[in-house]
Specification:
Layout: H1 7-16, H2 23-31, E1 35-36, H3 40-46, E2 50-51, E3 54-60, H4 66-77, E4 87-90, H5 98-102, E5 112-115, H6 124-137, E6 142-146, H7 154-157, H8 169-180, H9 183-186, E7 190-199, E8 209-211, H10 216-220, E9 223-234, E10 240-251, E11 261-267, E12 271-272, H11 274-284, E13 288-291, E14 294-297, E15 306-308, H12 310-319, H13 321-334
Parallel strand pairs: 3-7, 3-9, 4-5, 4-6, 6-7
Antiparallel strand pairs: 1-2, 7-8, 9-10, 10-11, 11-12, 13-14, 14-15
Helix pairs in contact: 6-8, 11-13
Length: 335
């Protein structure tokens, strides 16, 4: 029990258990929470990555890289230096495909538990109760719910399809987040909720689209990332090889500033392209210079750091991880 000499406190502890801690104890516990990287560009906007013991919401239009980004983060969480964390994937959309699982570099598919409905659709309550039990009993886990928008309450499953009622999902999500609010940080778990934009039919505000799921989950979120827009990523041949995803930060558990922005590079069949993101960041921070088609790495001495064309530069960095890591460390030092 916290060392607070107070008769009232003693009476409360006798009835409710050891519920008191000093502010110093809480401070020491929270300051040592690990921050886990997502990708170089996103990490810069978030202030380092995503902190354990937190809630995350990824919101965007369909096909904008939300699932890939969540799985890429999961692959980072599986690494030894980040705790070899257990991953639980709630496949509420029923759309998790082989290309999602093999198209993320470093992902260990054998170490991911995927929750699907056994027979017919599963109600939202069942999915969320599974999450509550798993997080409560599995410290340091990562849960991905894909997606909040696809969850359907049991009452709506049992009735005919119609739109003449008030949706019950926001209330269920409110109860869900309240039940896990104190458990997630104590278990040092990370809960990632993938969400969609829906049409704003309320007549309130100027936004045409708003996040689905109600406001309670947004209150609960420690990190909010929204996809502002995407662009095609084309090779010199003109073929599309991926997409550029422009993220906007609503808030960050790692200390990033609200309103911050990041551009991640999603390569098909590979996931988030760390090398491409580091090259762009290196150029922005003055660690890589460009003259015509020539690139020069200012952090590499001599002519070894000079390359004609970005593709040759990228290949060199991928073939020489020590230089890629050095570029990454230099960028972190400048933040």
């Amino acid at each position: 029990m916290a060392k607070i000499n107070d008769e009232v406190v003693t009476q409360i502890v006798k009835k409710y258990g050891d519920v008191f801690r000093t502010g110093e104890v809480v401070f020491e516990e929270t300051k040592n929470l690990q921050v886990i990287p997502v990708s170089p560009a996103i990490d810069v906007a978030l202030g380092g990555g995503i902190k354990e013991g937190s809630w995350v919401i990824l919101t965007g239009d369909p096909k904008t890289g939300k699932t890939t980004t969540a799985l890429q983060f999961a692959s980072n969480c599986q690494k030894e230096e980040h705790g070899k964390r257990k991953i639980l994937f709630i496949n509420a959309e029923g759309r998790l495909k082989s290309m999602n699982l093999e198209g993320v570099h470093g992902l260990n598919r054998e170490e991911i538990l995927v929750v699907d409905s056994a027979e017919g659709p599963m109600p939202a309550e069942d999915y969320l109760n599974i999450v509550v039990k798993y997080v409560t009993q599995q410290p340091n886990c990562v849960v991905i719910i894909d997606s909040i928008s696809s969850l359907i309450p049991s009452k709506e499953l049992s009735e005919d399809v119609e739109a003449q009622f008030r949706p019950g999902l926001p209330k269920i999500l409110s109860i869900f987040t309240k039940k896990l609010a104190n458990i997630v940080p104590k278990q040092r778990a990370i809960v990632i909720m993938i969400n969609h934009f829906i049409a704003n039919t309320s007549g309130m505000g100027m936004k045409r689209k708003i996040p689905d799921g109600g406001v309670k989950i947004r209150y609960q979120a420690d990190t909010l990332l929204e996809v502002a827009y995407t662009k095609k990523w084309e090779a010199s041949s003109g073929n599309q090889i991926g997409q550029l995803v422009h993220w906007r930060v609503g808030c960050s558990s790692a200390g990033g500033f609200p309103g911050g922005e990041a551009q991640s590079w999603l390569r098909y069949g590979h996931g988030l392209d760390y090398t491409q993101e580091l090259i762009n960041l290196g150029y922005e921070f003055g660690l890589i210079s460009k003259s015509g088609s020539w690139y020069r790495c200012e952090f590499i001495e001599g002519d070894d750091g000079k390359f004609q064309g970005q593709q040759k530069l990228a290949q060199f960095l991928e073939d020489n991880p020590k230089h890629l890591n050095k570029l990454n460390e230099k960028i972190k030092e400048m933040l």
